[in-house]
Design brief:
Major royal jelly protein; disordered N terminus; mainly beta; Neuraminidase; MRJP/yellow-related; single chain; signal; 6-blade_b-propeller_TolB-like
Length: 377
């Protein structure tokens, strides 16, 4: 068989792609440091400028207890946050005043802790409408909830309210829906919302999510698609980067998103303004730094990929311990926090059985640049 230059290049590209989709069994990278040792999976960590630390427990290992906690690094003790009552939900509870299932948490650019509540009791279960899905804002000075944004008018029974990012210059926030593919624009002043890019190729997942070289399946045996998931706002507020969990990072100028909030005609043709940005793999979480570099975790081969502002991807680190790194975080010490949550080994993707192997870890690595001011305080 004769190989042309093109066919050889294609073969090498396919080989590299297949290699990247396999679990990594190489050596530990000495740059990766253990920050926290946990007994249960945490899929999100955030810090305040004065050193306070908040964790979100995913509870995919079958464990019970508070979802959002403050972690004391001196004693390794955790405290339900903002309190035990908010972290306790039963069938008779008011859905609007309790965290039903928190999917993400982060300190915002305003210094408050923002909690994204899916509003459904379990993965794949119907959303409790209209009061279940919400965005809860906690003042970390008073340790009290200062505002709740109801999201029932922006979600469906099969929605999975996933994550949130902010554009302080315009007064808007953007959320992803990983269950009913779309982006949600939130007016932070009024609380009004608009769903955009509904079932668009940039928010839909054409392939199931994959981890450790295997396609994930739901409890009924069907392949697991996780739609619009990760998102980041550029440090100048001009671009929103977003993707489904199976990868394929797109971007759109925020001015079109913001204008479409008031202009239904523009909202209908918004797909004309989005563009491909980077050919990313199945992803657990992302982060963005002050220089507009995006960091993407590869759930298949335990890598963190760095994407430069021009869309070029490079390898930051690869380490076998980075098992499903979820929502990453950049602190003021220029460290990238990487919670290795092992989510693919949890009950939602293994017919109710947990294969999570404790202890679990949150790792850090020095990246030489701090966070975007638009991302968090």
């Amino acid at each position: 068989m004769m190989f042309t230059k093109h066919s050889i290049s294609l073969f090498l590209a396919l080989t590299a792609t297949l290699s990247a989709a396999q679990r990594y069994y190489g050596p530990n990278d000495p740059r990766v440091e253990t920050a926290l040792t946990l007994q249960h999976p945490s899929n999100a960590v955030s810090t305040t400028p004065d050193g306070r630390l908040f964790l979100l427990y995913a509870r995919v290992d079958g464990s019970t207890g508070p979802q959002v906690v403050e972690y004391n690094r001196s004693t390794n003790a955790t405290t339900p946050y903002p309190n035990a009552e908010w972290n306790t939900f039963t069938n008779g509870s008011d859905p609007s005043g309790h965290l039903i299932r928190t999917n993400s948490q982060r300190i915002g650019p305003d210094g408050n802790l923002w909690l994204v509540d899916v509003g459904s009791p379990g993965f794949g279960e119907p959303v409790i409408l209209p009061k279940g899905p919400k965005l809860v804002v906690v003042n970390v000075t008073t340790n009290e909830v200062c505002r709740v944004y109801p999201m029932g008018n922006a979600t469906l029974y099969n929605s999975l309210l996933d994550d949130v990012r902010f554009n302080p210059g315009t007064g808007f926030a953007y959320l992803t829906d990983a269950g009913a593919p779309n982006l949600i624009i939130l007016n932070l002043n009024t609380g009004d919302t608009r769903r955009v890019l509904i079932d668009d190729r940039s928010t839909d997942a054409y392939m199931p999510v994959s981890a450790e070289g295997n396609l994930l399946r739901a409890s009924d045996g069907s392949f697991q698609h996780i739609y619009a998931d990760q998102l980041e706002v550029s440090p100048d507020g001009e671009w929103l980067y977003y993707q489904p969990s199976n990868g394929g990072l797109s971007r759109i100028q925020t001015k079109y998103l913001d204008q479409s909030f008031y202009n239904s005609t523009l909202a209908q043709v918004l797909s004309q303004y989005r563009e491909p940005y980077a050919h990313t793999p199945s992803t657990g979480g992302t982060a963005i730094d002050a220089h507009n570099n995006v960091y993407v975790s590869d759930t298949d081969s335990q890598r963190i990929i760095k994407i430069f502002p021009n869309g070029t991807m490079t390898l930051l680190v690869q380490d076998p311990r980075l098992l499903w790194v979820d929502a990453m975080w950049i602190d003021n010490q220029q460290k990238l926090w990487m919670p290795a949550a092992q989510l693919n080994r949890g009950t939602p993707f293994n017919n109710g059985t947990s294969f999570v192997e404790p202890p679990l870890y949150v790792f850090t690595i020095d990246i030489g640049v701090g966070p975007s001011a638009f991302d968090h305080a």
